[in-house]
Amino acid sequence: MTMQEFVGKRVAANYWRGRESVGGKLGFDKTGMTFDSHALNFQTGSQRIDYRDIVALEPHRTLGIVNNGLTVRTADGAEHRFVINRRRQVIDFLNAQKVIR
Predict the structure, then answer these.
(1) CATH of domain 3-100
(2) Could you tell me the pTM of the whole model?
(3) To which H or E segment does residue 35 belong?
């Protein structure tokens, strides 16, 4: 995936905040990605992750059956867990951004 194919795009995603899977969109720009929740969640708000801070990407099964989970680990030790559409393309894009650094 090239930067032009993802920058400015948003994909449907859920972001795990504790025990709640918060629904929203994950958007991509030139320096990072931002999760924005839907207003109808108990926990709302945004989560920003700069590409330069990503140290590991780990695809996983959601609820043990569906292949659309993605854990993004950052340099500060945080673990950001997503359920995401187009997971393979997102992983390819994020890996390409890590190579650029």
Answers:
(1) 2.30.29.30
(2) 0.84
(3) strand 32-37
